[in-house]
Write a structure and sequence with these properties.
By secondary structure, the chain is of the alpha/beta class. It is built from 45 helices and 24 strands. Among the domains are: 7-168 and 253-381, 5'-nuclease (Rossmann fold); 408-491 and 520-641, 2-Layer Sandwich (Nucleotidyltransferase, domain 5); 671-770, Taq DNA Polymerase, Chain T, domain 4, CATH 1.20.1060; 875-938, no CATH class; 1024-1096, no CATH class. Strands 6-5-4-1-2-3-7 form a 7-stranded mixed beta sheet. The chain has a 6-stranded mixed beta sheet with strand order 8-11-10-9-12-13. α7 (174-181) packs across α8, α20 (539-550) runs parallel beside α25 and α35 (878-887) crosses α36.
Length: 1166
């Protein structure tokens, strides 16, 4: 039985040392001591012990007196001298292992590869899986279903498939392969004249040297017909060398009889690097010290330790983490391992400028192992030609450079790197600007087209209703400027005040007493900033805040550091806080902690928001955001490959303004319909709750009823009282996935799942929709719409505005929230009842354009399967065709054909999602045996599909990522995955290929559609532009201009008019009638919205507004479907044009087909 929960991890220690040294650029500390190898080694130790808790970790070392040299004196005789910088670092690295008490194995006479082979053999015999950390091809012979190799430099798992792909032979044939081709780096002769292709050809016919030579002896002419006369002659001429080479390349897997792996179990609570923190400090390795938290400790100088006989070890009282040194294998058994328990002196790294290496002496200052041992093993590893290392050094550098102390400054953010100590350190300077002269003088000094990073600070996260209170900007990567304009005095004596007193202060506090920029000047400053190329982290949010507060918009390129981080690794955390720590080890304080520190938690109805943060604190917090966005953008942009740069330029960046428009478009709802629907759902919920209580025995007067919405109470009833199975569910979770597994055990489980489905729809849609559209009801009753057309305004209030998340999924699909309009089921009656309440506005219709079977078409495209390709070209019913392949042609005339077709449909789509027999059985409610039978029949008819999907699984595991049609990647760390996680990764990886590629196509279509119809030029918020979008849009006054510096470009009234900063009323009249004084601040804050002037905007601008009489709007994207609102008389014409665009967006091997549906409500579109 394999122990999937715990692996044995074997490190090819010297192999790692030399790969690191030759692949990475040299680094030195201030004393001139080289540290590049040590830096990467420290990072390896940190990562491996952090990510592999409970695993057995062993570092293998080279033994003295290599026996292979006794067999063949020229073995590794062609290697050059080890560089001095390498020799300086090796003894320090080996000493670290011993000082940390990490388990090592070294057997005299044998190489580390032999130790690995022996430990691998013993580990498998004891039921462990084995992971070997190395890039050495000599270890490929050990690979099997329980043994993998992990290339740390390339972050790639190497399995049997990788071996076959790279060399053309399986691991079991690799010894024979190496015996034939030899190895020039180790000076192994092989069969002279036979190369890699010749060896593969030989192994196609003969699986061993004995078989090869015996066959030549028995029937030379037959072998010559297979391999050629010249090849046979070469084989015969090198017979002795072939067998000699086999002896040299074969790793010895029987050097030990037994081994106690549990002695090497990783039980470190903290990083073992803390044990050598003084040494790391001495070497000036500040980044790793910060990573392990040692920079916060008081570190003493390394204590001088005593050298003993036989070796060195940190802690003689803890044999669990000591070094095993075996002098000879003949006398060794598990009871005779001798541990070296003598203290060793601390290394004093010599300066390269002060004479290099110094021999150890009895007074201290020695190195971890004798110099001749280090040097001799160094010689064995130095290849006469370093081509192998050079070929993959680029990948290694790209994978590990982020872990190093960079020796050069980033040219884009030069001021943000401290070259004296830690060049990867994030530093910045925050400035407060609350004087308008200083603000505009600074802005005027910024050269045209200089990229500016900016960030908005607001009173909340709902950009439609919350106020911007300040903003920050940065244009050099070091200096950040925070500009407050709507801050209120901080609440003094907060802890002593009562709840009532605090809430009174919050409601009545004024901005007048805080020295800050006026709202009018803030708008002008933002307008000037928005003429520059912009960077922000989640720029869509900041643009929306500016639009809804001031009615202003970017007039230049936009760039998003969050999207860059997502493209580089879509499954990772991409918040500013996480990225700053990931790339700079800089710890920031998140907003909630900041607010809690300033205003400790109290039960308040009205809580303090960012406008109550002091200007000094706001300066530090706000400025950091824009600086971080600037620095991260430039760092991450430099990490993008060509394909991702194209994805960023052609897809993700153009999509941002489209999503902004879609969010502002919203979708109409029938409020009265939802008012009537609400009690129906309440009746259903009450009935189901009563049924749950009855089925579980909670009825009558005997027991009080439990809360069916409480997971804790439901768990108590299901697992403690009803005693339902907890197999695979040790925490007794009531999550849907666990309930489905026990649905047959008790009828209450099915009822509970039904209740949750109803409750989810009720709480996620009906209640929020009625709450969000409450303003429309008030508007009809109170007539609040002043100059606005009342009908348009009411319809605007009856719209629901979702938010689209561009970086919300690892596959690349868009997601939505507040509310999530992508998650309303189209298949269930309940879901349809919710969709029916989403309607087109008067005079318009809803139109749906949906890619037909897009993922199956992509399967046909990627696999090249002729049967699938032919079916799609002939416009066949693919599910019906699959049903006939599985169940026979005669089923079409049977009365159960629809059932068979549904089974085929589940199989078709299930295989793309990585569905196995168990999941298919659950979906179809059949036995697992029957489900497996269906899948086997499917693959028997479509073997090419089976082979393709399997090849993709192998590729994903080998490469560590899945790739979409447009070369986006989703990464998986197989190195830390047990079998269950591994299988999950493979399912997700295969799914990403298809689902992610479909996401690529729909995004590309959206961009082309919006370009064609001018939708990317349309802000499209109802009711004469932006009825809800300019909390401060009426602040373009003469007063604000007259107080500007005389040289300011917006100082003159005619300049203002020419810039088009005002609403669509006469600009001059507006200026004269809207002068603001300080007493007007209350009016400024009231929602009197004057739309921005669309007429004077550039015609190509992505945020240009249209009036309410629009022809078409893009409202929603629901995965493979786009939903539009189109004028009724234009719907047929427009949908045909959209269909043509979507079907021609990308040429696949099969046609792309779109289905069109037109209706008055969403439910009727399907």
């Amino acid at each position: 039985m394999l122990r999937f929960e715990m692996q044995v991890i074997l490190i090819d220690t010297f192999g790692f040392f030399f790969r690191s040294f030759y692949a990475l650029p040299p680094l030195f500390n201030s004393k001139g001591f080289p540290t590049s190898l040590l830096t990467v080694f420290a990072n390896l130790i940190f990562e491996i012990f952090k990510k592999n808790k409970g695993c057995c970790i062993i570092f293998t070392l080279e033994g003295h007196d290599n026996k292979r040299k006794e067999i063949y004196k020229d073995y590794k005789a062609n290697r050059s001298e080890a560089p001095a910088d390498l020799l300086l670092q090796l003894p320090v690295a080996v000493e670290w292992l011993q000082k940390m008490g990490l388990k090592t194995l070294q057997i005299n006479g044998y190489e580390a590869d032999d130790c690995i082979a022996t430990l691998s053999h013993l580990a498998q015999a004891q039921g462990f899986q084995v992971r070997i950390i190395s890039h050495d091809k000599d270890l490929y012979q050990l690979i099997n279903e329980n043994v993998i190799i992990y290339d740390y430099g390339k972050k790639r798992v190497i399995t049997a498939a990788e071996c076959v792909e790279k060399f053309g032979v399986s691991p079991r044939d690799f010894i024979t392969y190496q015996s034939i081709v030899g190895d020039s780096s180790d000076n192994i002769p092989g069969i002279k004249g036979i190369g890699a292709k010749g060896a593969v050809k030989i192994l196609e016919h003969f699986k061993s040297l004995e078989s090869l030579y015996d066959s030549i002896t028995a029937d030379t002419s037959n072998v010559e017909s297979l391999l050629g006369k010249r090849a046979v002659a070469l084989i015969l001429a090198s017979k002795d060398n072939a067998f000699l080479s086999r002896e040299l390349v074969t790793l010895n897997s029987h050097l030990l009889e037994n081994y106690d792996f549990l002695e090497s179990k990783n039980e470190f609570e903290n990083s073992p690097l803390l044990k050598i923190a003084p040494e790391l400090k001495e070497l000036e390795m500040q980044k790793i010290l910060s990573t392990i938290g040692a920079d916060r400790l008081q570190l003493e100088s390394p204590p001088p330790l005593r050298r003993g006989v036989g070796g060195w070890v940190k802690n003689p009282d803890n044999p669990k983490h000591q070094t095993t040194q075996i002098d000879s294998i003949e006398s060794h058994n598990t009871n005779s391992i001798t541990y070296n328990t003598h203290n060793k002196p601390t290394p004093q790294p010599p300066s390269a400028r002060e004479g290099g290496y110094k021999e150890p002496n009895d007074k201290g200052g020695g190195l971890s192992t004798p110099h001749d041992y280090i040097e001799s093993n160094a010689q064995d590893f130095i290849e006469s030609k370093s081509q192998n290392i050079k070929e993959d050094s680029k990948d290694f550098i790209e994978s590990n450079l982020g872990n190093l102390q960079d020796s050069k400054k980033d040219s884009n953010v030069s001021q943000n790197l401290d070259s004296k100590k830690d060049s990867n350190k994030f530093t910045f300077k925050a400035h407060l600007i609350n004087d308008k002269d200083k603000l505009f003088t600074l802005l005027d000094s910024i050269p045209k087209d200089t990229t500016i990073a900016f960030d908005c600070e607001t009173t909340g996260l709902d950009y439609r209703s919350e106020k911007m209170v300040g903003f920050s900007f940065c244009f050099d990567g070091f200096n950040g400027y925070y500009v407050p304009f709507l801050h209120k005095p901080p609440i003094s004596n907060y802890n002593e005040l009562s709840k009532k007193e605090i809430e009174s202060i919050i409601l009545n506090s004024k901005i007048d007493s805080v020295k800050q920029i006026s709202i009018a000047d803030a708008k002008l400053a933002l307008q000037q900033i928005f003429t520059h190329p912009l960077i922000a982290h989640n720029i869509k949010f900041d643009i929306q805040v500016a639009l809804h507060n001031f009615g202003i918009y970017p007039q230049n390129d936009i760039k998003d550091s969050m999207i860059l981080a997502w493209l580089l690794n879509p499954g990772s955390k991409i918040g500013l806080k996480e990225l700053l720590y990931k790339y700079f080890k800089y710890e920031t304080e998140d907003f909630d902690k900041l607010m809690e520190k300033i205003y400790p938690k109290k039960k308040l109805t009205q809580k303090p928001t960012f406008d109550f943060v002091s200007l000094e604190q706001a300066k530090d917090y706000g400025a950091l955001d824009s600086i971080a966005a600037y620095v991260l953008y430039h760092k991450l942009e430099s990490m993008l490959g060509i394909d991702l740069k194209q994805e960023l330029k052609n897809i993700e960046t153009p999509l941002i303004p489209i999503l902004i428009n879609m969010e502002n478009n919203g979708i109409c709802v029938d409020r009265q319909y939802f008012i009537k629907l609400k009690p129906k759902f309440e009746i259903m919920l009450n009935a189901l709750a009563n049924k749950i209580h009855t089925q579980s025995g909670y009825h009558g007067l005997n027991k009080s009823k439990f809360n069916v919405n409480s997971p804790k109470q439901v768990s108590e009833v299901l697992f403690n009282e009803l005693k339902l199975s907890t197999k695979g569910n040790p925490k007794k979770s009531t999550n849907e996935i666990y309930l489905e597994a026990i649905i047959s055990e008790h009828p209450v489980v099915e009822t509970l799942l039904e209740y949750r489905e109803v409750f989810k729809l009720f709480s996620s849609y009906i209640e929020p929709i009625l709450r969000l559209t409450k303003g429309a009801e008030n508007a009809e009753n109170k007539g609040l719409f002043n100059t606005l057309d009342s009908k348009d305004s009411i319809e605007s209030k009856n719209r629901i505005y979702t938010q689209f998340l561009q970086t919300g999924t690892a596959t690349g699909r868009l997601s939505s929230k507040s509310p999530n309009l992508q998650n309303i089921s189209v298949r269930s009656d309940l879901g349809k009842s919710i969709r029916a309440g989403f309607i087109a506005r008067s005079g318009y219709v809803l139109a749906s354009l949906d890619y037909s079977q897009i993922e199956l078409r992509l399967l046909a495209h990627f696999s090249g399967d002729k049967t699938l390709i032919s079916a799609f070209h002939n416009n066949a019913d693919i599910h019906a065709q699959t049903a006939k392949m599985i169940f026979g042609e005669n089923i079409e005339s049977s009365g159960d054909f629809a059932t068979f077709r549904n089974i085929a449909k589940s199989i078709n789509f299930g295989l793309i999602y990585g569905m196995g027999a168990r999941k298919l059985a659950q979906t179809l409610q059949i036995t697992q045996f029957k489900a497996k039978e269906y899948i086997d029949k499917y693959f028997a008819k479509l073997p090419h599909i089976r082979d393709f999907l399997e090849s993709k699984r192998v590729e994903i595991e080998n490469l560590g990522y899945a790739e979409t049609l447009f070369k986006r990647r989703r990464y998986f760390d197989f190195s830390i995955a047990n079998e269950g996680v591994r299988q999950g990764f493979l399912r997700e990886g295969v799914n990403t290929i298809f689902q992610g590629s479909a996401a690529d196509l729909i995004k590309k279509s959206m961009i082309e559609i919006c370009d064609t119809f001018g939708l990317s030029l349309q802000d499209s918020t109802n009711s004469k532009n932006i009825e809800s979008k300019g909390l401060f849009s009426n602040i373009d006054s003469i007063e604000s201009k007259s107080q500007m510096p005389a040289h300011h470009p917006f100082n003159k009234t005619d300049s203002i008019e020419s810039k088009g900063l005002f609403s669509n009323i006469d600009s001059k009249d507006f200026i004269e009638s809207n002068s603001l004084n300080s007493k007007d601040s209350k009016e400024i804050l009231s929602p009197i919205h004057h739309p921005i002037c669309k007429d004077q905007m550039p015609t190509h601008h992505p945020f240009k507004s249209e009036n309410s009489d629009y022809k078409i709007k893009l409202l929603l994207q629901v995965h493979d479907e786009l939903i539009f609102e189109i004028k009724q008389d234009l719907a047929q014409n427009y949908t045909q044009k959209i269909k043509q665009i979507m079907e021609s967006t990308y040429k696949l091997k099969v046609p792309l087909i779109c289905n069109i549906a037109i209706a008055s409500n969403w439910a009727a579109l399907k």
